[in-house]
Amino acid sequence: MMYVKAFLVGGVICALSQVLIDRTRLTPARILSAYVVLGVILSGVGIWGPVVEFAGTGATVPLLGFGHTMAEGVKTAVREQGVLGAFTGGLTASAGGIAAAVFFSLLAAFLFQPGDRS
Amino acid sequence: MKLDRKEYRALCKEQEPSSPSRRTVPAAFAVGGALCLLGQVLRTLFENMGLDEKAAGTAVSISLIFLGVALTALRLFEKIAKFAGAGTLVPITGFANAIASPALEFKTEGFVLGTCVKMFTIAGPVLTWGISASVVYGLALWLAEVMG
After folding, report:
1. Residues forming a β-bridge with A62
2. Which of A61, B56, B79, B83 is placed for a possible disulfide with B46 were both Cys, Cβ 3.0 to 4.6 Å?
3. Does residue B110 sit at the A interface (CB-CB below 8 Å)?
4. In 3-state terms, chain B is what percent helix, strand and coil (to 5)?
C-alpha cells in the first residue's frame, strides 16, 4: 500500500510542478530553490510531517522533502544545543545528499567527456 | 503590414513554442511517481538491512542522487528529462543533475574554474536559500523556546 501511495503522491507533486513550469516558464534554479524553501516552511508549520507519514518517499523524494529534512534536523538540533543548533541542524541533516551530489558529480567529470552539443 | 492588437496576439500565439500540457503533465506524473516508488522500494530494502528510519532516508537520497549523476554522465538524463520534465526535475534526481550536468559540461574550462565553480550554478542558489530558510526556522524555534 505504501508503494501505491508513494507513487500517487509523488506523481501528483511532479504533475503540479509541470503545470507550474508550462504556465510560468520558471527556470530550474528558481523552482528548485522555491521547493526547498517551501519544504522548510511546510515542515515548520506542521503540514509536511503528516504527508510524509502518509506517503513515505512520495513526500520525501521530491525536493520539498529536502527542505523537510533540513527543518527536521534544525528542530532536533535546537532542542539539543539551543541557538547553535539553528546553524548546524539543517546542513547536518542534509549532509549525506549534498556530499553525494558533489562527490559523484566530480567523479563523473573525471571519468566522462562532455558531449558535443548538437 | 499593419496589425491591430488582436491580430498581433494571434500571430504571437501561433509562433510561440507550444507547451502541450496534455502530454507533459501525465509524463511528469508517471516518471515522478515511478522515481518516488523506486525510493520507497529502496527504503524498504535499507530498513530490512537494519538501518533506522533516518539513516534509510539518507541512504535513499544518496542512491537516487547516484542514479541521477550516472544517468547524466551517460547522457540519458537529458533524454528522459525532455520527455518527463518536472517528473525528473523535482525529485532529488533533478538536484543531482543540476550539479552533475555543469560539472561535466564545463570540464573544458578546467577542473577548478570549470567543473568546481560551475557545478554550483544551480545548486548554489538552492543551497543558499535552503540553508538560510533552515537557519531562520531554527532561530524562530529557539526564540519561541527562550521566550515561551
Report:
1. B91
2. B56
3. no
4. 85, 0, 15
The reply to whether residue A62 touches residue B91, judged by beta carbons under 8 angstroms, is: yes
pLDDT surpassing 50 at residue A118: no
Residue B114: count of CB within 10 angstroms of its CB: 19
How many domains, in total, are found in chain A? Answer: 1
The C-alpha cell at B25 is 503533465
In the three-class reduction of DSSP (H, G, I as helix; E, B as strand; rest coil), residue A114 is classed as: coil
Residues B30-88 pLDDT 10s: 999 999 999 999 999 999 999 999 999 999 999 999 999 999 999 999 999 999 999 99
Could you say which of A13, A15, A40 has the minimum Cβ distance to residue B137?
Answer: A40
**How many cross-chain Cβ pairs, A to B, lie less than 8 Å apart?**
276
Query: B10 vs A4, A24, B18, CA distance in Å?
Result: 44, 19, 13
Residue whose cell numbers read 538491512: B49
Contact (CB<8Å) A6/B40 = yes
**Does ipTM surpass 0.90 in this model?**
yes
Q: Does residue A118 lie within any of the structural domains? A: no
Smallest CA–CA distance, residue A50 to chain B, in Å, is 15
